[in-house]
Amino acid sequence: MILNLYGNLDGLSKGIEILKSTLNYEVADNGIPIKVVNEPGNIHVELAKGQGLIKYDKKVHFFRALGLFMEDAAQKNEFKIIEEPQFEMNGPMVDVSRNAVLSIKSAEKLIELLAVMGLNMLMLYTEDIYTVQNYPYFGYMRGRYTYDEMKELDDYADCFGIEIIPCIQTLAHLEQFLKWRESEPLKDTSSVLLVGEEKVYTFIEEIIKASVSPLRTKRIHLGMDEAWDLGLGNYLLKNGYTRRHDIMNLHAAKVIDITRKLGLKPMIWSDMYFRLGSKTNDYYDENAYLPDDVIKQVPKELQLVYWDYYHDDIDSYKKFISLHKRFNNDIIFAGGLWTWNGLVVNYRKAFNVTNSALEACKAEGIKEVIATMWGDNGAETNIFSALAGLQLFAEHGYSRILNQDKLKRRFEFCTGGNFDSFFNISLIDQIPGTEEEHQHAPSNPSKPLLYQDILLGLFDKHIEGMNLNEYYSNLEKKLSEDQKNNPSWDFVFDVPGKLCSVLSIKAELGINIKKMYDSGDKEGLKKIIENDLPKLYEKVDTLRKAHRKQWLATYKPFGWEVLDIRYGGVLARIDSTIERLTLYLEGKIDKIEELEQERLYFDGMERPTGVKVGHINRYNRIVSACPI
């Protein structure tokens, strides 16, 4: 399509040029004339009698409007679209601290997608993944970003009116730095900084300066969440017991003094204020005690980020927004796209919680929202597999009431992917029997089934009688078709498909081996040695190589070694299983002790009454009952 854009194009030319290949258009005098008007108010996109019109307020609104124009102009001769932005800030927070550090190329691709969707903010969650002078072990061998890399990303994002906001940690979640001897004087505990120590505030000022210096923004997310053992380590030895709300406020005040000096607008996660007032340390405790003096001491310029990825009902979000309004601070809401559930994104959970949360935000006047994309326990879920979740945030951001059909159309235009195909990836964990789950974290069978030991079968009891080999075999075929139908995202679908191929053998293999062993079916065991196990070895190695290719196409190489080791462990244990079964069949051992053990339910996962499978996302607990 050829477009003739004229009017108020100040600051738009670079973004227009970049998106030519993405949206497949040219700009020339003989194109469809489109008048561009920059004015406050709603997005207005129109084509009438061969004349186009785009009215926009913020720069990112123009690029969403351009996409809307392209989408409708390809199908209609005349149209009129008016959209009312619901939020002043809306965009993702991508976790790059759990080993998967987005490459610059991938981050720029993500920025382009955000622009077309109309999302105007990007946070990269960096615990220690940025360079800080005088602290050489901060982010050492973890793929940390350099000043120049962050400057390049900020320049790229600015082409589209997207604000990159640093998202760091200034209290807890710093175990990857605090494990080094260099950090000893800064430690309260293994993950928490020593509040009140002057060296700590020298360090914090340095990391704040390092995180903001490459960027245009004056905003910063300071973290301060989940400081479970705040004041209970070296702080306790040095100062004795102190009311932990007071420690929190002392630290917040000192850090805000730094941001105030640097002219920054800070925000923090809000959970510690609620946890410290809860008898059960529960963020979502409606009866948490928040002393008035604590509320009054929170610096006014500090924005509080209410994060909640769990509740399915609108009323719960409204209730907790109301509790946050007791503070005299602006409130930001952070939801979650469930990229941290294990091997694959869980769209069912992500959509259920997001729809309720964002409806509540709109009803309660919350104007800034964040879509978190965490990467817990090795970041095994590829970030681009969750694009439908980003589109959901975008469409909520431009409509009071979500239109599901429009959501699907917009996703397919903005990304070139098929909405239903992306949803099918989640079927790897959304196995039969999980449809009505309402637990804190949804079941994630694929991760324990991939990594559990064949001879130990720690999770076999959970899947007895579920015919999962057949389920995964059928799903492999479905995802193969989805891969063909999404050529732009071939690398996204390749890994889930090959994972299903592995699980079509491995899911119930341990159960079958145990049954044959118990019944004395040595012929059956021989067939498993000769057929199933060699075939499984080959499939696991094929999956490993596909995952490696996907990782290196998306992230920096650092961190892949962890998953290489995990896959290597699976391969080694297949080899050992062949050896153990062979020795038994040859009569060189009279029994296989691992198979003599009774199989129990795994007592270490979230599995409420009535839930058969359950949730666990800790590799070290999955692979063995012994410590790793």
Question: Which keywords apply here?
Answer:
628 residues; alpha/beta; Double Stranded RNA Binding Domain; Four Helix Bundle (Hemerythrin (Met), subunit A); eight-stranded parallel sheet; 24 helices; 14 strands; globular
Helix content: 40-55%
CATH fold field value of the domain at 427-622: Four Helix Bundle (Hemerythrin (Met), subunit A)
Biggest sheet details: 8 strands, parallel
Poorly predicted runs: none
Name of the CATH class of the domain at 427-622: Mainly Alpha
- Would you tell me the overall average pLDDT? 97
CATH superfamily of the domain at 427-622: N-acetyl-b-d-glucoasminidase
What's the N-to-C terminus distance?
58 Å
What spatial form do the alpha-carbon principal axes imply?
globular
| Structural class based on helices, strands and sheet pairing | alpha/beta
Radius of gyration: 26 Å
Structure description:
With 628 residues, the protein is α/β, with parallel strands linked by helices. α13 (387-396) packs across α14. Helices cover 46% and strands 12% of the residues.
